Amino acid sequence: MALLAPMAVVVVAVAGTFMAVLGADIGCLGEGGSAAQAAPTKTAKKQIAPWKLKLYRAAAKRFDVDWTFLASIGYQECGNGACREINASGCGGAMQIAVVRGSACSPDPSAPTLWERYGVDADGDGKVSITSPADSIFTGARILRPVMGAPRTGGSYAAYREAACHYYGACADGIVSYADEVMARAVQYGFKGKGSPEPSDPAGAQPAPAGNEECGAQPSLSGGLGGAKRVKGPAGLKALPPDITPGTPEACDSRIVADVIYLARRFGQIVTDCFGLGHTPDGEHPLGAAIDAAPKNGDWSTTMRLARAVGWKPSCAASGVRPDCADPPFRFVGYNGYPSHGDPEHCVPCTGGPHIHISWQTSASSGMPENSARYSYIPAIWIEVLAGKGKR
Hints:
Distance between the termini: 42 Å
Structural class: alpha+beta
Number of strands: 10
Helix content: 10-25%
Largest sheet: 4 strands, antiparallel
Shape: globular
Strand content: 5-15%
Oligomer: single chain
Number of domains: 2
């Protein structure tokens, strides 16, 4: 069994895990997913168990990588099984990810492993477990771009082949021509990036008839928040419904209102502020693109679930910015450890009261050319919003 890339395990970063939003059913994907994602071929449906195919496609959509490449890596590493054990080299799970410090897979005992840094709770059981195929596959998808250098969905054959070399630690060795085998299989599964050769079995590389992927054969699994998309369109302030505000009317940029309603209702939160001029003038509140929220029933564990769902983790503390502490479409998450933010135990000082702050990425956010102090509502040209089917 192939090992994870040696170059990957030298990443030194703050330890922590990303927990996917709980309870969102991946559902039957059929020919769905991102428009750029290939439909499964006859070979793919023949080689990959339906429940595993569903996971590959959902994970690839969530982290914007080509599902055929992710599935081919998974097949190369684990075949069609779950590979729940940790091997003697310190890698484990369906994607054979480094999980043991000081092992061959992660030599530095003082540095977090890839599993510690990037682990995803994709099955929504409250744990990030190497023995869970869902957690392993989503984590594998998550590390492909930032750690292995894979391009986004639609990237070239050469770029994905290079990522395969990084995953293994070499393009080939005396045992296996790893990268070439991975890419040949990905092409057979439907990969069509620029520079792709013809499939070795053209008939098997034809799209398979659409089916139900044997939905229901496995328990419901979380697919995360479903990725992000950038929207322009008409913009203006739109009032939030009264069930998610504490009695004081609140309004947000109309383009994020659906996101705000979804997050507030799903995680049992009330929105205490959105558009407002009494905040940092070059931040997202004057754009109507940030919320402050607190639990509706006083249960701060629900707010912790929300924080983790949008990409925050306890080690973020006074940071909160993406990519490590906020997942797209969010730019910044202020919670426990960030001054004047957090639950009652951590909000120090607490001039605005305990709360979580969540900002959306916009064309006028910090570091963007459009960024400037605003003393009245002037909408950003574009805002990133949630793209998941299940969010509304």
